[in-house]
Specification:
60% of the residues lie in helices and 0% in strands. The protein is mostly helical and 72 residues long. The model has no long low-confidence stretch (mean pLDDT 78).
C-alpha cells in the first residue's frame, strides 16, 4: 500500500484531547480497521459484465426498477 491507513498523529491527539484517551484510541483503531477493510474490498472487487445482451438481472434493486418503470 502506498499510503498509511488510519489517522495521523495530530488527528489521534485531537481525539484524545477532546473525547478522552480511551475513547479516542478506540475510535482511531476502529477507523484504521475500517480503512483496511475498504482497501481489501477495493483489491478484491470484481466487475461483472453481462454475457447475454438483453437479459435482465433477477436481483436488480427494486427502487431502480420502480424508477425505470415509473411506478411508486
Amino acid at each position: 500500500m502506498s499510503q498509511q491507513l488510519g489517522l495521523s498523529y495530530n488527528a489521534r491527539k485531537a481525539l484524545s484531547v477532546h473525547i478522552g484517551e480511551q475513547a479516542g484510541t478506540e475510535i482511531a483503531n476502529l477507523i484504521q480497521r475500517m480503512a483496511a477493510q475498504i482497501e481489501e474490498l477495493k483489491r478484491s472487487k470484481v466487475n461483472v459484465t453481462p454475457v447475454v445482451p438483453g437479459v435482465r438481472q433477477q436481483d436488480e434493486d427494486p427502487l431502480t426498477t420502480a424508477v425505470e418503470e415509473e411506478r411508486f
